[in-house]
Amino acid sequence: MRLGFALPQFGAAADRPEEAARFAREAERMGAAGLWVGDRLLAPVNPSVGYGGTDTVPPQFRSALDPFALLTVAAGATERVLLGTSVLNAPWYPPALLARSLTAIDRISGGRLLPGLGTGWSPEEYRAAGVPMGERGRRLDECLDALEELWSDGPAEYRGALWEVPESHVGLKPVQRPRPPIYLGAFAPAALRRVARRADGWLPAMVLPGRSDPGAVLAGPLAAIREEAARQGRDPAAVDVVLRINPGPSVPVREIADAVLSAEREAGVEHAFVDLMYLTEETDRALELADLLLEKTGAR
């Protein structure tokens, strides 16, 4: 099992950005496999859609550090650990700007970037970003096409219905060639089919305490992804998985570790990360919890 952790990005941690580098260095020293960021723009006062099936938005999302800046800090503070996004809301970003930011992080880190992309869930955030939410699926598909072009050799050009890149020289490329592996966050059937068709991996998420066994929750969608990948002529085993685990307040470390190990045992998931923001907003305590989880899951 490879186990990583979300960087301190939200809530009170956002007011202490100087501690992000220390968390990154210490987590790497302890044996963490990855450091991860999310993508929140704002927390609506009266959300039309709540977070994670609720009718509210967690108060931690009222303060959020920029994911690109935070990963850049982590890249400069570490040498080995994977740097991932779970997930960037790709429809918010013109592909040329997204490619520039991701390329810079991959270069600064020496090729350690794992870009995870998705479409988000908040209508208010889409309004603030100036992007029609009804176009989010098409914008993600076009973004993936445009990134392939921008990261290819030679002049880049892309012309879609929603995004356009005029024929241009884009000389700076990622260290990882032909491009960094792209993972997608998905649970809806159409989104799972997109993972099967064109992603290098799937980014599921799980909340604790949950209503059923983690392995059982993951096994069905993962089987559907791999069956569709085979129908598309892809090697099903080539579609990787990184599980995000969001423990609620006061969830014991043992329960989190059990969820990680259950996902490995029952669904074959060998890579996960834990977001500790609901358990603590103190960096030292977060590092203590990370150390315990690495020990109890045998991830180091």
Automatic annotation (TrEMBL):
Matching entries from PANTHER family are given as:
ALKANESULFONATE MONOOXYGENASE (PTHR42847), ALKANESULFONATE MONOOXYGENASE-RELATED (PTHR42847:SF4)
GO biological processes: alkanesulfonate catabolic process
Which is one GO molecular function term here? Answer: alkanesulfonate monooxygenase activity
Q: Which UniProt keywords apply?
A: Flavoprotein, FMN, Monooxygenase, Oxidoreductase
UniProt organism field? Nocardiopsis composta
Q: Which residues form the Luciferase-like domain?
A: 11-245
Taxonomically, the superkingdom here is Bacteria
Name the UniProt record assigns to this protein: Putative F420-dependent oxidoreductase
